[in-house]
Amino acid sequence: MSEGARNAVSTTARYDFDTVIDRRGTWCVQWDGVADRFGVDGLLPFTISDMDFETAPEVLAALRARLDHGVLGYTTWQQDDFLSAVAHWYGTRYGADLDTGRLVYGPSVLSQLSQLLQMWTSEGEGVVVHTPTYDGFRKAVLGLGRELRGVPLGDTEALERELARADAKVLVLCSPHNPTGRVWTEAELREMAELARRHGAAVISDEIHADFVHDGHVHVPYARIADAAGVGDGGVEAGVRDGGGPAGGRWAVITSASKSFNFPALTGSYGIIGDPADRAEYLRRMETAEGLASPAVLSLTAHIAAYREGAAWLDAVRAYVTGNLAMVAERLDAEFPELAWVPPQAGYLAWIDLRPLGVEEEALQRVLIEREKVAIMPGSVYGAPGFLRLNLGCPRSKAEAGVSALVRGLRTVRA
Ligand SMILES: Cc1ncc(COP(=O)(O)O)c(C=O)c1O
Fold first, then answer.
1. 3-state secondary structure at position 411
2. Which residue, 302, 258, 315, is CA-closest to 81?
3. What is the pTM of this model?
4. CA–CA gap between residue 323 and residue 2 (Å, rounded)
5. pLDDT along the chain (415 residues), means of 10
6. Cβ < 6 A, ligand 1 pocket
7. CATH of 3-56+311-414 given 1.10.3720.10, 3.90.1150.10, 3.40.30.10, 3.30.450.40
8. Domain 73-309 carries which CATH code?
């Protein structure tokens, strides 16, 4: 075991992430729905981004207490328990002074994305994303009849070219980035904000992976970038307050605790919208056209518990996943040093560039599914054939089984 993996184990001793919990028969997409994407039942799954762990015990306790009350009537998110819990999280995790008057609620991050795209773009107009691209973005943009315009991650010239097109109305940032796990630096975010402002594009920053940033990297909330570029009482210290976006540029953050605390099926998300008129319009649509005035009460309950009491669990699960990633790096390094694979800067998804091995995606998938009985996301899902996305949000034993299957599969197709 590497030093990284050993350290990770010692810091997670308070919680048990090693025990395998049988999720089969719970209607979960990860295990029970594997045939929908991979055509075969019973595969060991490393697919969509949820984890095989229970959520934090503090979250479970809060959910149980709420259920024990027994009355599950219509609920409001515009109350201090929820708003102050979010502000507490931003203060303690990001050093940001969040103005809770800017918060909005939503049924899911992708639903919020869809709503904002409908507000800020018309059919046929362009939405700029980075490639590789989270498939949820692709489905939302194309499903709304907008044009998806991909620019390679890190290619500023291509980004500027796309944003400069007259009908490019929105830049959707994935911060941190899924599937690569890339954490944007403050300088990169500033540059993208400035390009969007210059070309009149709104920015929607999806920060659902922000709480899972690994040691050595820092997530910078987009709201801070927008405010720092503004005037008056903006600036980094002021944090997340009204006071102008990047010279008035439209922007929104969409996020949820559901990813990092592993309760996405409770359905619930929230956002920060910079401009008061945009915020009012978003809420009007939610409460009227969408009929979504009442949030899911269990999601609210889970958010409050996670943000008030869940920090230690989150740090522990992140450390455990760091151990999984270190283990995979060690295995891949030993077997295929030409991959020079390094763990992601954020998240539990291992994005692996297999192109140096020259294997063909379809052939590899056939071997992984038919012979190794594992389901691992092919890169083509994200517009990047030749890559794989291996979900390591799972007990070490499963992660080891997955990487062993992958190594054997790669040996087979190369033979
Ligand atoms: C970047 C990103 N955004 C959004 C989502 C989905 O969030 P929700 O279930 O709240 O729509 C995911 C899930 O994998 C994701 O990776």
1. helix
2. 302
3. 0.93
4. 9
5. 50 84 98 97 97 98 98 97 98 94 97 98 98 98 98 97 97 98 97 95 98 97 85 33 49 98 98 96 95 94 98 98 98 98 98 97 98 98 97 98 98 93
6. 49, 108-110, 134, 136, 174, 178, 206, 208, 256, 258, 264, 269
7. 3.90.1150.10
8. 3.40.640.10
